[in-house]
């Protein structure tokens, strides 16, 4: 260990870190221990920092594990497979097991996604061109479950907690209007679509409000999708 300072400056895939030599070598069978005890070579960058050609963002979780022996991931973390590969590359089998445990511990539940939409029609001779148009994507279910799935994309402004986190609500919506993004987030968290329904809400021209396009109004509809994780 004599060839390395007590505080090691690292460049991991372009992201810089500082860690004690004791932290980096506290797992005797790991690749990091082999490197920082002089048993494997390591290069330096132009500023003299030790360079690891690995994922720099995910290395924070590797370093947290080396410091505490535990794994704490943020809500809506979607890089478990990549983090597992990093743990395997650094030869940290206990961390690999912890990552697998977080995947198995997902809470079962149900989330309903709904939206009211229409079609926006092309102009100037493009009347046959239609684009899906929706204003808000509504999400209904148990509050902690929706936070876990949608993370920072969840808008809770219409139904704040008031100290009751373990509750159900039908008043949350998403901060974006991309239906497929919502579906991807549910799929990545292990949810499956078990049912859907839709209905037309078209009105007559006499019911139009100022500024509402008659053709768009004719195609108004409401759809709901029910997702379950067992």
TrEMBL record:
Coiled coil: none annotated. The gene is LOC108557858. It comes from the Eukaryota. The keyword Membrane applies. It comes from Nicrophorus vespilloides. Auxiliary subunit of GABA-B receptors that determine the pharmacology and kinetics of the receptor response. Increases agonist potency and markedly alter the G-protein signaling of the receptors by accelerating onset and promoting desensitization. This is BTB/POZ domain-containing protein KCTD12-like. SUPFAM superfamilies: POZ domain. Signal peptide: none annotated.
